Amino acid sequence: MIYSDKVLDHFSNPRNVGEIPDADGVGEVGNAKCGDIMKIYLKINDGVIDDVKFKTFGCGAAVATSSIATEMIKGKKIEDALQITNRAVVEALDGLPPAKLHCSVLAEQAMKAAIADYYKRNGVDPTPIVGEIHDCEECSGCH
């Protein structure tokens, strides 16, 4: 399997690792079949993602997609962060091997799950805004 320099960089030097104890939104997604579990923590101020941290248990591609996804949403308005797709994550990493594309899906879902949690904590139904968050069906042969 060949990884881009960006994937290797984000795996070796992941950005925004950790947790935010008083997070405004926390999203956890994963699939026991492949073993990748991502948890994203958000700190939101006036509709802007001020801080974001992640904890990921999984393969190198899972760590890299989590790292770049947090960089992509930090400082963005919630509405703009919701526009970031798994394809954008893959493009930002200069590609992923086909067997690892599901990691980008998990990164997108973790971001959306954290935003959905933020809305729930504020008494807002997140489904019309965030959409449905589905389990990763693409997990196959991850490790």
Secondary structure layout:
Blueprint: H1 5-12, E1 25-31, E2 36-45, E3 48-57, H2 60-73, H3 78-81, H4 86-92, H5 101-121, H6 127-130
Antiparallel strand pairs: 1-2, 2-3
Helix pairs in contact: 1-2, 2-5, 4-5
Description:
With 143 residues, this protein is an alpha+beta fold. The chain is built from 6 helices and 3 strands; from the N terminus they run αβββααααα. It has helices spanning 5-12, 60-73, 78-81, 86-92, 101-121, 127-130, and strands at 25-31, 36-45, 48-57. It has a 3-stranded antiparallel sheet. The longest helix has 21 residues, at 101-121. Residues 139-143 have low confidence and may be disordered.
Protein traits:
alpha+beta, Sufe protein. Chain: A, 6 helices, globular
For the sheet with most strands, the description reads:
3 strands, antiparallel
**How many beta strands in the DSSP annotation?**
3
Main-sheet strand order equals 1-2-3
The CATH class: Alpha Beta
How many individual helices?
6
Coarse shape = globular
Structure class: alpha+beta
Mean pLDDT comes to 92
CATH arch. level architecture:
Alpha-Beta Complex
| Overall structural domain count | 1
Helix content: 40-55%
CATH topology, by name, is Sufe protein. Chain: A
What is the strand content? 15-25%
Q: Which regions are unreliable across 5 or more consecutive residues at pLDDT < 50? A: 139-143
Order of helices and strands: HEEEHHHHH
Report the span from N to C terminus: 12 Å
Radius of gyration from CA coordinates: 14 Å
Q: What is the gist of this entry?
A:
The protein has 143 residues and is of the alpha+beta class.
